[in-house]
Amino acid sequence: MPAPDATVRGGSVPGRTSAGPGISVFHLSGALLTGVGLLSVLWSMFLPWLASGPATRNSFQLMGLADRYRLFNAWWYRLAPDVWPFWGPAVVVVLLLLVLRLRRSAAVLGLLVGVSSVTVGVLVLAYGSGRSVGGVRMVELGPTTMVVGGVLGCLGAVGLFLRSPTRLVPAPRT
Questions:
Q1: Which of 77, 80, 128, 162 could disulfide-link to 72, CB 3.0 to 4.6 Å?
Q2: pTM value?
């Protein structure tokens, strides 16, 4: 077993899992949790949010209807249909930042996307749950998946900020 201050490269230390130099438990689990959570947010955008007879509508079609029929009165609500198409690219940017190991930038943007996703999902569930207007009803699958993915993304982003008491592999000395 190497000395405690030795840098482990390519070898193995009993009781430790090698995941790369200087990767902590919190950072690895935070990156995985953020990635899985935000991929679920991205996936939820294409799941059904509304149903009318046999036809279902995803979140993009819902935002298109909201924009077409001017369903939102306040100025910040009117921004939603314009901002919604950029949600997916924001998730992809977070994933790219994670791949590039820019964990703090990924954590900040991931936390922003996660909190916003939870807010949108909860508002849609609170407003439309159990309602049916003119044969159009809300399908809970899309918003619920968005809330769960947003919560997982937020938890993972917080994990990216935390310092781990133990490292999977000691950081290289410079």
A1: 77
A2: 0.77
